[in-house]
Amino acid sequence: MEIQREYQLIKQPPVDGYCEQCGFDYDTGDLQGTVTLLIRQSADCSMALTKAAAGPDSSVVRLRPEPDVWSAIEYACHVRDVLEVQRLRIAQCLAEDRPVYAPMDRTGRVKQQKYEDQDPMEVAAALVRFAKEFGAAARVLRPQELGKLGLYNYPVRAPRTLGWVIRHTAHEIQHHRHDIIEILAKLEPPIVPKPKVEEEDVIEEVVE
């Protein structure tokens, strides 16, 4: 494995500032705009998954482009679960004085819940539903609530505001939307194959 490729596999996206991989910026955008973007991009993930699953080779959603890179269905399941877990964390933060969020165990869920075997249509529908539920919970938060702290475990154990939790959730969706679309673009067989260029045609064109 090349050093550059190995670095790409282990590199984690940032949790503050600007993400060069997907273009998300933690420092721009208001609450309502961030939530609107999150819901729209969740719908993009859902549509990309359903389109691929309904295509000429439905198994493409379960293919991993590399052994250490998730498949489209695995990323979609992760996005769905992130939305559900983060919505529950909003509720926990509002209900407790000093909330400590339990780890999501993102890697363990892949095997425990058998992401690769889940129905893509059901995952896509749940993804959109959880995005709307998260959005409904986030939109009504007042400034003092957005500033409330909870102990977050990823990527290191540290206090984080609810405002950050919302932005981080939006980053997760944007980042993995990019992953899902990029993976399917690489693996999904084209519906209309590109015409092959014959060697003789190329030679004739050069001669002329």
From TrEMBL:
Domain of life: Bacteria
Domain DinB-like, chain residue ranges per copy: 48-179
Annotated protein name in UniProt: DinB family protein
